[in-house]
Amino acid sequence: MITDSEKLHEECGVFGVFSQKTVNVASTVYYGLFSLQHRGQEGCGIAINDEGVIKCYKDLGLVNDVFTPMVMKSLGEGNMAVGHVRYGTTGSNDRSNVQPIVVNHIKGRMALAHNGNLVNSAQLREELELEGSIFHTTSDTEVISYVITKERINCPSIEEAVNRAMYKIDGAYSLVVMSPSKLIAARDPRGFRPLCYGKTEDGRYIVASESCALDAVGAKLIRDIRPGEIVVFSEDGVRSIDDHVGLKDSSMCIFEYIYFARPDSKIDGCNVHQARVRAGELLARSHPVDADIVIGVPDSGLDAAVGYARESGIPYGIGFIKNKYIGRTFISPGQSSREDKVKIKLNPIAEVVKGKRVIMIDDSIVRGTTSARIVRLVRDAGAKEVHVRISAPPFVAPCYYGVDIDSKENLIACRNTIPEIAEIIGADSLGYLDIEDVTKLADGSSCKGFCRACFNEEYPTPIPQGNSKNKFEQKIDKSKKKNKGKGETNEELQ
Ligand code: SF4
Q: 333 pLDDT exceeds 80?
């Protein structure tokens, strides 16, 4: 299987719609999620609100596979909806972890979709468990839903419960919450993950992780939700609550611009394509090399390659064809080598690179093995020299905010110098975007500060202890081990 294990995985995408009338909100969410599919391919779900009754359908798989015409019909109409695409960064790839989460609580029902990772979820979960809460999933989104519903007991409104919950939860979260009568969007005070809203011509309000999802449903971007802001959509209109705005220094994830987001999205006022082109230009200035052609590794290396070519004056060429139909997981029918599988996914155009000194731009190197294979493909296609340029600084540390890199052992830059990495991947030279330049690529962004922790280990939050993707599953295993020999069997513990 090609699992892209050496690529960083997207986190999640959230989507919400609020309409004054009962309409086919399910299809709006479907198209919205379809355009956010790049943020998560493990599972997806839609929860529809029809006059206070919340119906939800979710499963493992891609939007197109999960939401068949029959499922869409069964969801029916409504005036509000919440959707989610998932790549799990906390909790295993299990059906129970797919979102939205729908909960019944003392004051009604609530559906919740979340992008990001909390840094204090283990602690909060333990506190809640000690009070008697029973968790059905291993994701930190359920922790958020418990904190909100607990606050709701003594709160006059759901938005106030979200507001109070935000004093308790810490880390990265962009949330869309749906109550029987309101749709609420909230972004954590540091603004790690993007969140924006817009409006369609017929008056529906749309909330989405990225503006490309607004475009897909014909909505005009109104603005980004500010770090720490809560925006409430209800029959009374749109209301902003800013109690948490400015409480923390903003630390928007710079890697959204480099890799995660779609190039046609605008995040905090800065277009992602232009940010990547700028990264290429900065790279050309700091790491020039004599060459005949600049090519990009699809998809996110392409825009930076355009920038590098423009700044250096070296012609840009289309060096690779990517198989559009391969998807995230390709099942190999035989025992062919991994090299073959990379080639099935990515094929160089020999006529473009043959006999040339090639500059190849990619967005990142994680372990180095995929980069080595790609360099070899270009050499086998006849390139005379291959100079690799990376539109991000080297990865030296894990991310605790929703990106699936949680171990230093997997990062080639933790164990090797840049010349050593060049040798390992077989490149004639290697250059990374300088750490000082990385925030320059988001020029024009309304965000005042950026997280670069995976490049410089300067974490904007306390580092959570024992944080890993499957931390809640691990906790169960440990307790089994601890209690063994004390008269309790594993079965009893389950
Ligand atoms: Fe983004 Fe890296 Fe910060 Fe994670 S550590 S939020 S990937 S910049």
A: no
